[in-house]
What does this fold into?
Amino acid sequence: MFLSVFDMFKIGIGPSSSHTMGPMVAAGRFLDLLRNSPFEARGLRASLHGSLAFTGVGHGTDRATILGLAGFRPETHDAQAGEAALAAIRREKAVAPEGLPRLRFDPQQDLIFDYDHPLPGHANGMILMATDAQGDVIVKETYYSIGGGFVLTEAELQSPPKEPARSETIHPYPFETAAEMLEMARKSGRSIAAMKRANELKHCSASALDTGLARIWTAMNACIERGLAAEGTLPGGLGVRRRAGEIHRALTAEHGMNLHAPHTTNDWLIVHAMAVNEENAAGGQVVTAPTNGAAGVLPATIRYWLDHVPSARPALISDFLLTAAAIGGLIKHNASISGAECGCQAEIGSASAMAAAGFCAVMGGTPEQVENAAEIALEHHLGMTCDPVRGLVQVPCIERNGMGAVKAVAAASLALRGNGAHVVPLDSAIETMRQTGADMSRKYKETALGGLAVNVPNC
It folds into this structure.
């Protein structure tokens, strides 16, 4: 099992990695399929199923699908160009992606929210179709957005590519469980970040890795700053007001007047997480960590470390990210990072575990303490439902990121007070999260059919 740090941390657009980025990626893959098809397409159709249907409008799935079919990509998305393209597509009822002829596509008729027929492979399913001049379907593909911006076709989901046999010539540290990770760390004397770096270097140069990690942190930090500077009401009709900037100004003033109380350190953590997720809710550029809905936890924890820990060194940010990615990879491989599959425990819980691990590592924690920190953070998110009010990634999602960051720091601090020995292994917490997600009612898994989504007035 190998998931690159750049698979876990992807620069994209809000508000959802699975509902916005994933469908846009799927649409791009479908265009590539058409470019290599012997059939001459004249039109396009799309149907959204399961969670993509139930919370699709609130998560921008319709917009992402339309723009993806027009040739837009998450990593290069320009918001102004996107708005202009959407207006033109709705007016002209056609898209013109590069390398293909002009294709009929009326969003009102050709984009269907199918609430009654969930697809069997995953809660986030979509079917994309190309039609001929008579309107008959000539090319059809089913895609699943499995969380964190990852997309698989139906065939890929059913028959995933086989992992090569374990060998040091492939990856020097091919751990698939936390237990294996710790055993390899003990035998090698290396940190989790050092092992993860060695694995990454099988795929890219050291300079490319360092440049990529620096780019990831720059994008995360820029998102925080944009969120702190922005004001106004978030889109979607729920009337949620941006609060991060106002809170940040108050915290800064209190600190300048020497009114800073110890408990307000948590407020700095929370406000930086909220800044990211207010940007995400507004459709801005964010970095999956491991998802968009949980994108604020890890950047807020890094900022807390940089701003409030005297021994913090920016040179260690790469170790923070590599450690976090190692933990996130274990969770994704053995359970899920998808709210539609396992509830919010898979998103905020995973993000908090990743942030706790990274923070513990840069604070000098041993691999055993790092694993303990991740376990504590994940354990205390078990059972958390995904119940977005009106299907928007706003309530309770924005504040929930702040609380996930607070838990991450608390978990790391607790782990650092011990020697790494603990009762519940991280592998057991991950497996429990998987089982809990499997048992969880669908209405609590990003459908907006239960929980806060039905008990909070949203009109």
